[in-house]
From TrEMBL, chains A, B:
Keyword list, A-Z: CBS domain, Cell membrane, Magnesium, Membrane, Metal-binding, Transmembrane, Transmembrane helix, Transport
GO cellular component: plasma membrane
Record-given protein name: Magnesium transporter MgtE
Transmembrane spans: 317-337, 344-362, 394-413, 419-443, 455-479
Entries under Pfam families matching the protein: CBS, MgtE, MgtE_N
Keyword Magnesium assigned: yes
Family membership: Belongs to the SLC41A transporter family.
Length: 480, 480
């Protein structure tokens, strides 16, 4: 993807510090000059300024695009664009590929169409397809027009596949060989290449209709006698292949389970369309886990931490709205029992405990079940066994913690019945939480929905309203 | 790692179903026989029984160890051990490597020392070191004793490095060459190998003291003329290397940024100790994200979903205890305002809304900050800028949602002042949440702690107690 060689990983933080240092000096100069009311003209001419810029440029030239991307992510908008303008044009494309969508938008906004064209020229067709959605349509049209027939077809193909499918992630350059030639011939053929496609750990063996016959690993190519035919040493049985519309997440799991590096993508007739490589799968795995962590916290997407306030508000409002609804329902439940609370105000102080612990226990259960489903470890048939187990856990927790807090309530308010009601309410709410924690994700799975989605919101809603209702209800029945 | 070829990824679920099907037939037979009071002896002799077992064995023989591992994870204890007994012994080692710690324990419990020895015989020294902590000490001693000097040294070395360091993950077999030989010679040398180490994308070029001079990528080996010397085509500048005590997580990030496949591990004198390969890094990335998701939900470690109830209770109690404490504190805060609640019981119904929304907003903030820190995007110096931004977001959310819910409260209770207090309390609690969400992780980072740890617990504790105090406090001052 990039010509430049990676450098020692720990260096990244040093680089960031150096650049922030240069930038702050830059700001210093500007401030000084500003105070002295020196026209900007002069600033640009000032020596320190020139020195800083020169240093910054040299630094950036030495950096790997992936590292520059990280650094851009870490800089507030003004500094980010200042640095971005000083990056060598030929790196722009790779950097745009590496940065997060949020940051990419801020960078592209500042580029005119010619700069964008220059930036994406160097990219492979599959990389171009990745960027396409974020580029101005007219620019994209010109870029595509500038490609040759085959490349145009590739870009269109890649863009045609929905996100999160193998097709959208596959790249098109690969080395194919025929099975009837000797390894000797293959080696001579390879020596004609300037370079091999990234992550080439195997050559694809195809017939004259480009149908996959097997794969020739570089290992097999290197350890076998040169006289042997490809067909003798190629792997043709149980070769992992993907279809372009396979789910990217599933593909990533296969790479993980089978320790793969590159896998051919074939159509229904086993014609080879392209290649999936481990680097894309690693990004896939990272993105999936990020997405999960963000959605758990109710963030729609990864945020540019220096994004303007308003964008962050947009990113977060939906979840807050939902929680406002559920909190409102809970509040209505409490309102039902105004009378009881008036008579025994201790209830108001104790009820959040019942609701809170229920929510936590429920989230433990749902998290565990969702993980197990994601790992393909849970069949809907397991419902009863899992339910029995979780109810057991809930019962023990209820007796232990409910008993403890019940005793405390008894001691605090010198009221045994109150303590008993507290304990009973905790047990019941924990049982409710466990049931919901098992049933909600398994039902969603059975109906073909994403088991993870909104699970914890629903649980919390249930355990809040449920907890208040159970506790205040029991209190009303037995205490008043 | 394994001789067997991987198969089509989607197959995994089919396999699981088939095996569960076989097992259920098995149970059926057993039940029938049981009802007819037929002695177990007869069961074992019964034909259906034998057929099922034969089918099960055939199925397992065809499966990749990683797939068998997934299937074992998915089976309840009894079935799991039933299947485990029927797996071919030579696969045992690889399967033990693949399963989660929880499941591994259940499998090893059932094996006698000879079975364990047979299982781990086939493993590489680094894999052996991975399993060592879970094996009975006496068995481990015998196994190590059975190794040759060099292997013993390797196992000891690998076990000496703390978990989550590069040293603990590195493997020891690799191909090294000298720089003064021609590619021709290298090719001839490689043809003497039975197989190359997994994920060999480059040979390590070393001097006669085993010090790393550079790496010869298979690509360079394949595309260059045979007359060329290794020194002419090897990569010697800015080669990524790790030290054995580097953090495994950092190494994984480097693999991700630079799209690496295998990296040499060198000591202070650049002597090559071993190799880190992408497959271990993929597992590392997966484990990190799992651990984060589990700790967010307050689960100590990944759970075997079919583990006995008591083990799950142990895994979850700590978090529940902490939350009980914080909930108790919040409850005490409410108790302070008994008088106010008695006078205006609507407060009891409204207070959970203030606390709840604060908690959600705070968790959004802390999640975002923690991610940014983990990506190396936040310097403690950014504190003020981030704080200003988050306070802005909180202010807008407070005015919008606080205003909305305040209006609702006004309408519900026909009490304008109550509505205004509600709005004010929401705004203040959201500001509190934002501050805590930024300050807590950044402080933990500055003091060299893990910024993620317990962040959301602390936030929730703050926003609950704080929310109750703010709301009830304002109400007491302005409404009563």
């Amino acid at each position: 993807m990039t010509e430049q060689k990676p450098r020692d990983p720990d260096a990244l933080h040093r680089h960031l510090h150096d650049i922030q240092d240069l930038l702050s000096r830059q700001h210093l100069v500007e401030n000084l000059i500003h105070r002295q009311r020196m026209p900007h003209q002069k600033l640009v001419e000032s020596i320190t300024h020139k020195q800083n810029l020169a240093r910054l440029r040299r630094k950036l030239d030495r950096l790997h695009p992936a590292d520059i991307a990280c650094i851009l992510e870490a800089l507030p908008l003004a500094d980010r664009l200042f640095v971005w303008d000083r990056v060598r044009a030929e790196k722009d494309g790779d950097i745009l590929l590496e940065v997060s969508d949020a940051v990419r938008a801020t960078l592209i906004e500042t580029m005119d169409s010619d700069e964008i064209k220059a930036a994406v020229e160097s990219l492979d067709t599959d990389e171009l397809a990745d960027l396409a959605p974020d580029l101005p349509p007219d620019v994209m049209r010109d870029v595509i027009a500038s490609l040759d027939q085959e490349e145009q077809a590739q870009v269109r193909a890649a863009m045609a596949y929905p996100e999160d499918t193998v097709g959208a992630l596959m790249d098109f350059d690969m080395v194919t060989v025929r099975e009837d030639v000797t390894l000797e011939v293959v080696l001579r053929y390879l020596r004609r290449f300037e370079a091999l496609p990234d992550h080439t750990d195997a050559l694809f063996v195809v017939d004259r209709d480009d149908r996959l016959r097997g794969v020739l690993t570089l290992e097999a190519l290197l350890i076998n006698d040169l006289e042997k035919k490809v067909s003798q040493v190629m792997k043709s049985k149980s070769v992992v292949t993907f279809a372009p519309d396979d789910d990217a997440g599933g593909a990533a799991k296969a790479f993980e389970r089978y320790d793969l590096v590159s896998v051919p993508v074939v159509d229904a007739t086993r014609r080879v369309l392209g290649r999936i490589t481990i680097d894309d799968m690693v990004d896939q795995i990272r993105e999936e886990s990020e997405a999960e962590i963000f959605s758990q916290a109710g963030l729609r997407e990864e945020e540019d931490i220096f994004a303007p306030v308003i964008r962050s508000v947009k990113n977060r409002w939906a979840w807050l709205a939902i929680n406002l609804m559920t909190a409102f329902v809970a509040s209505r439940v409490i309102d039902l029992f105004q009378g009881s609370i008036e008579q025994l105000v201790a209830l108001a102080a104790l009820m959040p405990i019942v609701a809170g612990i229920g929510g936590n226990a429920g989230n433990q259960t749902v998290t565990m079940i969702v993980r197990a489903i994601a790992m393909g470890q849970v069949e809907p048939t397991a419902l009863w066994r899992l339910l029995r187990k979780e109810l057991g856990v809930a019962l023990i927790n209820g007796v232990v913690w409910g008993g403890a807090i019940g005793a405390v309530a008894w001691w605090l308010y010198r009221n045994l019945e109150l303590g008993l009601v507290m304990t009973a309410a905790m047990i019941l709410n924990l049982l409710l939480a466990a049931t919901a924690g098992v049933v909600i994700p398994l039902l969603r799975q059975r109906f073909g929905r994403d088991p993870a989605l909104g699970g914890s919101v629903m649980i919390t809603a249930l355990t809040d309203s449920g907890g208040f209702f159970i506790f205040l209800g029991l209190a009303t029945v037995f205490l008043l």
